[in-house]
Amino acid sequence: MWFGLSFVFSVFSQRLAESAEDADLYHEFNASLEFDYYNSMLINKVDEDGNYAELGGEFPLEENEHFNNLLVNTQQSDIQVPTNVYNKDPNILNAIYNSEALNDVFISNFQRDPTLTWQYFGSSTGFFRIYPGIKWTPDSNGVAAFDCRNRNWYIQAATSPKDIIIMVDISGSMKGLKMTIAKHTINTILDTLGENDFVNVIAYTDYVRYVEPCFRGTLVQADLDNREHFKVLVEELHVKGEAKIKPAMKEAFKILNEARANGQGSMCNQAIMLITDGAMEDFESVFEEFNWPERRVRVFTYLIGREMTFAQNTKWIACNNKGYYTHISTLADVQENVMEYLHVLSRPMVINHDHDIIWTEAYMDTVVTQSLLLMTSVAMPVFSKKKETLSHGILLGVVGSDIPLMEVMKLAPRYMLGAHGYAFLITNNGYILAHPDLRPLVSSAGLIVLILIKVKSV
Hints:
InterPro entries: Ca_channel_alpha-2/delta (IPR051173), VWA_N (IPR013608), VWF_A (IPR002035), vWFA_dom_sf (IPR036465)
Distance between the termini: 25 Å
Largest sheet: 7 strands, mixed
CATH topology of the largest domain: Beta-Lactamase
Helix content: 25-40%
Protein name: Calcium voltage-gated channel auxiliary subunit alpha2delta 4
Domain VWFA: 163-345
Strand content: 15-25%
GO molecular function: voltage-gated calcium channel activity
CATH superfamily of the largest domain: PAS domain
Family: Belongs to the calcium channel subunit alpha-2/delta family.
């Protein structure tokens, strides 16, 4: 039953991925490209003179019961661009132009299987193409904060499982805005992790401090509870002392090396995220002892603040350990710069063209589809097939589709279950994906999902 469902959606996803890759393959980048598209924030928007907004235009919408009674256009997809991404950037326009090829595939998939719900393409440049087309509603401040690259389905499809050690400098020089930016950077990195990843957070000055002492010397699964726990503890960090990077770096390498040797963690990618306003020490000996020449652990460096005195040192660390260096001077820089590490970690998978299908855990999507139904997403990465860039491993984005769990449960062979039997689904991480007693609960903080399983006597 599950194999059949997985096969069907893998076929649909494969058709979308191939269409996107072929469109990119035969397209030459045009820096002066002028191209109008349907921006979901601007469609059907008119000024005082009755003229449609630029990148808007007339976009017919009809209420559709299959799509949560929302106003949709089943003949056309449209584009959502986050407010922090320029909607006329040449890279954006060329990528959107290529993704137009997906529209016919979206429609064809829906005609083949009317039980399909939302289909979409999340671009590595930041835009989000969704079918059927909808009118996007910004938040109360008029901002479209949604970024598809932060969604679990995108991150899981774009990268392989990973072990991450986050090292943050909490010396005296990090006081004020620098520490605020550093904390936001940590939280953003944590948001890019999922249940197949493992993580720990180390703060350092002239000594090494585990943010959570109970997790000393080990990696923990980056599930929602642990990520939120780390975020609370990170907010309590205070600056003091002088930064000594060498002991902290040694500790991070020991954790990762022991995990790999003992068959623990993700048993895949390993990386250290160094967040600091400068690295002054002679740290080369640490890499010689723990990471060279194999360089199994990538080191990503985030230079915090406007000061560039130590930029060369932090860049050297990243470049000599197969990582990526980035400079973050304001809070607005954090999101885009953190996302760069995902592109680096995706390169081996992209070069090998591993089109692996991923299924997310159960969730409610109150942002995009405004659904109160539990659902799962199936997603697949999209790669560049151009010969001149094949060795670079360029990720174009991720295609995906939402599947209500009710549709999955309908496939259960009830006649084989007996009078008191029922079917349920469980993920490889031990989380309930679908169960008759899986219920959402509403709290004062908003809508959250809890798993409630009744004990039934036999």
